[in-house]
Amino acid sequence: MEAIVHQTTTTAPSSCAYNRDSHICLALKGPAVTQISTSSYDVLADSNRMVALLERYRTDLPCVDKELALHQSLRHELETHQRDGEHALAEWRQALARRWECEIAGQRFYMHMQRQLCDYFGADSPHLKIMLPDNSQSARTATELLSDLRRLQASLEILQPQPPFVCLQLPALTQTCTDLEEALNWTQRCEARRRTAMLEQRLALNVYYHARAQTQRLLDEHIGRGQGLANADVDALEISMMVD
Asked: Helices 64-121 and 43-57 sit at what angle, rounded to 10 degrees?
């Protein structure tokens, strides 16, 4: 048996970038999703087997009561941390989806305003150099996109005289900035919770691993080797974890 914590990489919008001139959104590689796979080793099933085994011998071996209480508590902890981890991962994915949605909306709005301003002032106008100081084709992160949108918003608010379309677009620009900022903050909070949940789950697995090995040794001493859970499984049990 082997408990494995592995990384599954998903396309994450954490670094959605935009190209101002070509109007192409570049989805850059985002953070890996760290999750526990129980395909080859189901730790909860193993814990249930250990509890059942200890319950079977508790009347014959007084020392088993303490081990049984320990493993019942550990089973509860494993169940709690697994549930919390799944919830945190699901919420993080929802936040990433929302962030991606807001990044795309922000990118499109920025390009739309860029075209309107270029048509109104002309591509070489000094107004554009103030409102759109960087017209390079380099990729932008979501945070940089928000900064560009905020700069554009501030520039348009003080621009005098304002082009006719600016008054109509400013409320939508403000809402676009607000939506993207909230999505970024939500993603950061969910990422922090996901990391915490994964760390706690890793610690719970480590505690169970050591308790399992100790209990198996105790059972071997009192009821004979091979009468408990398969001892080879204890020797092979290796919990390898990585939290990105």
From this structure: 170
Instruction: Please state the rounded mean pLDDT for residues 41-57.
Output: 87
Residue type, 76: H
Q: Per-residue pLDDT tens for 156-172?
A: 888 888 888 888 899 99
Cα 98 to Cα 171, 181, 197, 219, distances in angstroms: 21, 11, 21, 52
106 within some domain: yes
What b/e string do you get for 101-119 counting C-beta neighbours within 10 Å, with b at 16 or more? ebbebbbebbbebbeebee
Domain assignment of residue 170, yes or no: yes
Please, what sign has the CA dihedral across residues 120, 122, 125, 128? positive
| pLDDT at position 134 | 63
Domain assignment present for 12: yes
pLDDT by residue (tens digit) across 58-78?
A: 888 878 889 999 999 999 999
The CATH number covering residue 228 comes to: 1.20.1260
